[in-house]
Design brief:
By secondary structure, the protein is an alpha/beta fold. The chain is built from eleven helices and 16 strands. The strands form three sheets. Strands 15-14-13-12-6-11-10-7-16 form a nine-stranded mixed beta sheet. Strands 2-1-3-4-5 form a five-stranded parallel beta sheet, with helices on both faces.
Length: about 375
């Protein structure tokens, strides 16, 4: 019997709670949590059933009883906390973006490699069974030669002037908001399914709401604005990107956090010479497969999927699996890697976090310059 891992969680908001539930599902013990205030830490420890509430992130990281650290904080804290955790000999799961710049992310990859620890980033959309199925259809040649990739990732939670969040502030969230937050997921999925790297981009970005009212999240803004006033917005609400892969495949993606009625619509199409494949994250039980003669809808049925897709399916056909199941599978794979030292196929590591950060930097440069920009992946 393997000793249960002891997991510590820095940040206990929505995504921190998702991490904690997935850790429990993977057989870990919740060693403790730390939040933005002692009161919130105590409340989170009680709600999640964690053993203790730590006084600080540093106390949690330095505790010899913690095996793996989950970093679920605002973006500007990711890199310094990950560096400290790796230096302390901890395995790390760090939310994306891995760092505020690709250069900083490259330093984290180097730190992870030097430490010998497992360090992963939750690009969990990779764990939908039908995403794995689409990847296998391309990899096996069944779909033919890939030609085009296109799609969108649309949300509406920052639609209005009074919608407020720390991510809007570049000092806390980084120079990119919409693309770094959700466009990174789309690009990771496109690269994962196609097994091709995005190497050049052109982009246009939009700040649809140039000023935002300061509400309960007022502390997420910096500057001289007072409570009840407004602050200038310096991060994008939406971005349009064209790209090219190393193999010459062309693509495009629209990313928006101001599209009314769209809650979490990640939609991707991959057009190959014999078959087009379409996956919609809000309808994850199906994969649309189009051929010239006909179009079919492949349903998530473990009995009908390839081994690649079937490994991700944990429930019988007709019993829907969703986002939480993907997160559980990702954490399960990370913990398996910690136990065995063997990285399961498809597990997103800090190297994938660096790839996402590199594309983000290139998208911002392309939008600012109006030119095509090569993606610098910081590979020597």
């Amino acid at each position: 019997m393997l000793r249960p891992l002891k997991a510590g969680f820095i940040g206990t908001g929505f995504i921190g709670s998702v991490h904690a539930r997935a850790a429990l599902q993977a057989g870990a013990r919740l060693a403790g949590v730390v939040s933005s205030t002692p009161e919130r830490s105590q409340a989170a420890a009680q709600a999640l059933g964690a053993a203790r509430a730590y006084a600080s992130a540093e106390d949690l990281i330095d505790d010899d009883g913690v095996d793996v650290v989950h970093i679920c904080t605002p973006n500007h804290l990711h890199a310094p906390l990950a560096v400290r955790a790796l230096a302390a000999g901890k395995h790390v799961i760090c939310e994306k973006p891995l760092a505020l710049t690709s250069a900083e992310a490259a330093g984290l990859v180097e730190a992870a490699n030097s430490s010998g620890r497992i360090a992963t980033v939750p690009f969990v959309y990779r764990y939908y069974p039908l995403v794995r199925e689409a990847r296998e259809r391309l990899h096996s040649g069944k779909a033919g030669r890939l030609r085009l990739m296109h799609g969108s990732y649309l949300q509406d939670w920052l639609l209005r002037e009074d919608d407020d969040n720390w991510r809007v502030d570049a000092a806390l969230g980084g120079a990119s908001r919409a693309f770094a937050d959700i466009g990174s997921h789309w690009c990771d999925l496109a690269q994962f399914i196609s097994q091709q790297s995005i190497v050049r981009v052109s982009a246009r970005k939009l700040i649809a709401v140039p000023r935002r009212h300061r509400g309960d999240g007022a502390s997420s803004f910096t500057g001289a604005a007072t409570a009840g006033g407004t602050s200038l917005v310096d991060t994008e609400d939406a971005v349009l990107v064209h790209f090219e892969t190393a193999e010459g495949v062309l693509g495009s993606v629209t990313v928006s956090q101001v599209s009314p009625g769209r809650k979490n619509r990640l939609w991707i199409e991959l057009d190959a010479s014999d078959e087009s494949l379409v996956f919609n994250q809000e309808e994850p039980e199906t994969l649309w497969c189009g051929r010239r003669e006909s179009a079919t809808v492949l349903r998530r049925d473990p009995a009908q999927l390839t081994a690649a897709g079937g490994r991700m399916a944990t429930l019988p056909a007709g019993h829907p699996e969703g986002y939480a199941s993907c997160f559980e599978a990702f954490v399960g794979d990370t913990y398996a890697a910690i136990h065995t030292g063997e990285v399961p196929e498809g597990l997103p590591t800090f190297a994938d976090g660096l790839a996402a950060a590199s594309i983000t930097d290139a998208v911002l440069a392309a939008a600012d310059s109006g030119q095509w920009i090569d993606v610098d992946r910081h590979i020597n």
